[in-house]
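Q: Got a minute? One more chain.
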Amino acid sequence: MRGSVVLAAVVVVSALIQALTVLGDPVPTSSLGFAGLVLASVAAVILALWITASTALDVVDGNASGALSRAWRRPVVLVWCVGLTGVAVALAILFPLLPAIVILVALLLLPAAVDGHRNPFVGALHTVQRSSGRCAVAAVVTTLAYVLGWVVTLVLGFFVTGVVAAFLTWLWFGTTAAVLLVYWSRLYRRATLL
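A: Always. Here it is, folded:
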């Protein structure tokens, strides 16, 4: 239960930070103030991903007590989160659907990184080899969640604006990310136990 509370808290706090970055309807400019808002937003995404990925595997392992403090002792996961987020942003600039590929890769890699693999690609490959059918289903579910996220964002953009829209959008994204990370962490743990 504690792991769920940590996941929920991370989702809500991250959504609040994202909502605060659009307070006053900032206009994109080359000012230090706007750059600070962008950096705060990016930092919130990366930190939320780091803590969520770490906590998701702890939840799967039934060891959620102290999950937040364990996340801080997993700095390698933070490095992976920074790298994967950077690649996703770069690909989003090229074409908005390309980050879906990075999301799938991240969902495969992060549980292995959290588990302490020196090379998370080996852990991810092991997961796919041991549970290829389940991974295929999980990939379809993840892709559908990504597309649904776009639809939710568009609907919120049409009917809700400003801080409330930002909060609800990031609440949706955070909840989806938490659920998917727990789902993929279960696949990873199942594959390591086979």
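A: The radius of gyration is 17 Å.
Q: Perfect, thanks.
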